Amino acid sequence: MKVIVIGGGRSGKAIREALVERGATVKLLSRSTGFDVLLDDAAALFVGADAVVEATGRFTTSRKRATEFFTKSTRAISEAARLAGAKHVLLSIVNCELPEVQGYGYFAGKAAQEHLAHELSADLTTVRSTQWFEFAQQTLERMGAGPVALVPRMLIQPVALSAVAQVIADVAVGQRHSDMINLAGPESMTLSEMVRRVRPTKPLRLPLALPGATWRAISDGALLPTGNVETVGPAFVEWLHKA
Ligand SMILES: NC(=O)c1ccc[n+]([C@@H]2O[C@H](COP(=O)([O-])OP(=O)(O)OC[C@H]3O[C@@H](n4cnc5c(N)ncnc54)[C@H](OP(=O)(O)O)[C@@H]3O)[C@@H](O)[C@H]2O)c1
């Protein structure tokens, strides 16, 4: 079983690990390995692949930039996967398609990406997850400056990335079949609480109450999973103790 993972970030590496545990031959591609999904020919690299996992990301709050990045990535991967006869596994975000969060450009980009993948890919599984436990650290990296970090008010039901990676790997090697899988962790909490537990002393957390209906919705819990969602992985405290 040959699987290609596009995106060398936290998720790409966790997915590679889960695939290797299942005996798959894995190739991880991203700009740091010399492959730019927006510029390079994916078709030649996908020859012989059974599945391609799309885990690319670019952090931006601009709807235009997010939509351009995510749809270009997906167009290239969908088309090349179809030519190679490979399954396409897209990593996405629970509730990113909801109308009340479209005012946040990143979610609008992810929703456009899902829509395009659905249109173009011959054999697609979209695996949506809630925010990962690792999102607390990502927030500190993205929104921190010296001793201070701006932490947006968000009520979420975070999940361990490693548990998400296990499900993605099962799908990629053909142990699970589904068009759409939604994953969440076992309990809800605020992002501020997660950041506090990851870094109890520093930095000083400044709650960021962003204006507008979208952020009101997000701080009130619009990202919390509802309906057909699987609960996977450990509780946050358990995960922290092991980390
Ligand atoms: N963070 C969360 O809590 C969360 C939750 C659910 C879903 N997701 C989704 O999961 C996906 C991955 O997120 P992540 O946090 O793992 O992202 P990340 O750490 O920012 O990694 C994304 C990777 O994409 C690669 N990349 C960016 N532009 C590229 C290009 N033009 N060509 C090839 N590779 C490119 C980058 O590697 P190079 O720099 O080497 O190119 C980067 O390592 C995103 O789509 C995100 O929306 C995230």
- Biggest β-sheet, characterized? 7 strands, parallel
Q: CATH fold name, please?
A: Rossmann fold
- Sketch the topology as an H/E string, one letter per element: EHEHEHEHEHEEEHEEHEHEH
Radius of gyration: 18 Å
Mean pLDDT: 94
* Bound ligand species: NADP nicotinamide-adenine-dinucleotide phosphate
CATH homologous superfamily classification: NAD(P)-binding Rossmann-like Domain
Task: Write structural notes for this entry.
With 243 residues, the chain is α/β, with parallel strands linked by helices. The protein is built from nine helices and twelve strands. The chain has helices at residues 10-21, 42-46, 63-84, 105-120, 135-143, 161-172, 191-198, 213-220, 236-242, and strands spanning 2-6, 25-29, 51-54, 87-93, 124-129, 144-145, 148-152, 155-156, 180-184, 189-190, 204-208, 230-231. A seven-stranded parallel β-sheet has the order 2-1-3-4-5-9-12, sandwiched between helices. The protein has a three-stranded mixed β-sheet with strand order 6-7-11. A two-stranded antiparallel ribbon has the order 8-10. α1 crosses α6 and α3 (63-84) packs parallel to α4. It is globular and about 50 Å long. It starts with a strand and ends with a helix. NADP nicotinamide-adenine-dinucleotide phosphate (NAP) binds at residues 7-11, 30-32, 35-38, 55-58, 91, 93, 110, 129, 131-132, 135, 138.
Question: Key terms for this structure?
Answer:
243 residues; alpha/beta; Rossmann fold; seven-stranded parallel β-sheet; 9 helices; 12 strands; 41% helix; 21% strand; globular; binds NADP nicotinamide-adenine-dinucleotide phosphate
